[in-house]
Amino acid sequence: MKNIEILQTGLNYLNQGKVEQAEDCFKTVLSKDGQNHHALNLLGMLFVNTDRAQQGQELIIKALTNNPNDAQAHANIALAYKDLKNHQKAEKHLKESVRINPNKPQVWNNLGNILREQGKLAEAVIAFKRALTMAPDYAECLGNLSLTLCELGEFTSAFKVASKALKFDANIPQALCSIGEMFNQQGDTDKAISNFQKALDVDPNYVDAIIGIAVAYREAEQADSALEYIQKAKLIAPEYAKTYSVEGVIFEQLGEFVQAVSSFKKAIELSPNVSLTRYQLANLRGYKSSDEELMSLEATQKENINKNPSEYDEKGYVHYALAVIYDERNNTDAAFSAWKVANEIRAKSSPYDSIKRKKLFELTIEKSKVLFGKQDVLPENVTPKMLFIVGLQRSGTSLTDQILTSHANIGSVGEVGYSESSAVKIKSLTGIHYPEGLPHLTKSHLTELRNDYLNQLPHDVKTNKFVIDKTPINLQYLGLLATMFPNAKFVHCHRDPIDNCFSIYKLPFSESQDYAHSLPALASHYTLCRYMMTQWETMYSSRILNVRYEDTVENIQTQCERLLSFLELDFDENMLSFYKSKRQVRTPSASQVRQPIYKTSVSAWKKYETHLQPLISGIPDDLF
């Protein structure tokens, strides 16, 4: 029998799942012709698919030596390198494969997956879309694209793509995961877990779904359950970097510094090019980045010197990490330059419109005043009492929340989307969007909104006299919330405007928070928020307590006494040692609130004064 016939017989066996017989056929050909690149390629791929990646790689290298323009061999050896955790070589060979033959959707899909695993999300999207131009009904590729869009924060697009994938195949785990990720983003833990579980029903070992459940429990502040799923993910895929990155965040939120460092370092070891994890480690409070870590980040810059930063640092994390390290070393010019680049990357996708924002805030106040005048629509008082901590991010809201929840009679749900959901529902109740729909709310509408809100509260916090919702955006919904909960109280946190705004500028807030990525935008937004708060105080003065961050760090006991007098509660000594609490903290302040009061954040902007003039000049004098 000729070699070509033996190879065809081997292929037939392979298609029938008769792996041993196929292997014998390919080996027979190689015993007669050791350089037969078809046999080398086929046997190599068979080895890769039967957990013998190293042997497979060696055979396919021989095949490529004989025929370096074999697109399929390049695609096959890429899978071997992927199994051997050499993603860079896998990427190189997949790119060579599509260069030689650009008409293979599966190879483009594989390239997208390799790019995604390395954190090259924008490139991955391009690869997936290239596959879909040739195969629009390629459900697996649609699922992979939807997951990548989720990781880019493009949840609306991800949902559309995932829905399309599920129309072609209802059992695509990637698409089900994307739906779960969307619900995670919305804070709907039950629906998120339901979709992740559907993905696991299809593939019980689908690690992204297991990690998704861990994230859902993390966001619901059920850290023990989250860590339980992290361990499940490790057992299935012990070298999947994302697992360790998520674990690091959980440990950081729990105040477990040593474990957080270990997890982040493991994630970086497994996937050195994922810039988010490099930033998370650099930004961990108390961690001092090494010279080697700084040099690695700088090398990423130098390797891409001729590229626009957004091409290799899609979310700005490389530059945020560099800024943190330069700041630690008092290299202020380099630090500010890095923050500026990082924010410019994010600002491109979501430019800030100060005129539009001003009109929205003014309209919200106008319509809220109409609602304020309709005392006959107030629903009954409820228990527990709601306590809303409002204020711009980085104004001391997390610190105030942590201090208050150290009291025996106060619980907290942290930052949640309940109020935003209430505002959205006004459209279905009145036929008019928020805020225009506010004057049209009736007592029954408000009672329904209030009950919807309360039904979302975890059972374990309902036993407290007060339950805190510390979502910063609640500042914009204060009038609605004050009417939904007539016995609710509000704590408004504020601090020096330059410290506050610069602290925001230094962190990678999402593109949806469009004001966060330029100094003039921050000045405008800060001014508008203070204006809005002044208006709320004219309506609800007896229900609002202003808490200045600088006063808290100067004398925590006096501030605690003010807060408890406002809430009509007795003093609790535990409030003074708030940092000892084991409660999970899910905000960028997670590390800070695990430490005793410190004053280093006060006037931290001074050494950057020359760089901050667009911010300083944009804030009215009366707000200082």
Overview of this protein structure:
This protein is mostly helical. Among the domains are: 136 residues, Serine Threonine Protein Phosphatase 5, Tetratricopeptide repeat (Alpha Horseshoe), CATH 1.25.40; 270 residues, 3-Layer(aba) Sandwich (Rossmann fold). The protein is built from 31 helices and 5 strands. Helix 12 packs antiparallel against helix 13 and helix 27 packs across helix 28.
User: Beta-strand level of the residues, as a percent range?
Assistant: under 5%
Bulk shape = elongated
- The mean pLDDT is 91
Q: Which CATH architecture of one domain?
A: 3-Layer(aba) Sandwich
Gyration radius, in Å = 28 Å
Number of strands: 5
| Strand order in the largest sheet | 2-3-1-4-5
Main sheet overview: 5 strands, parallel
Examine the coordinates and then state which fold CATH places here, giving the name of the CATH topology of one domain: Rossmann fold
Helical segment count: 31
CATH class of one domain: Alpha Beta
| Poorly predicted runs of 5 or more residues | none
What is the structural class?
mainly alpha
Helix content: 55-70%
Distance between the termini: 90 Å
CATH superfamily of one domain: P-loop containing nucleotide triphosphate hydrolases
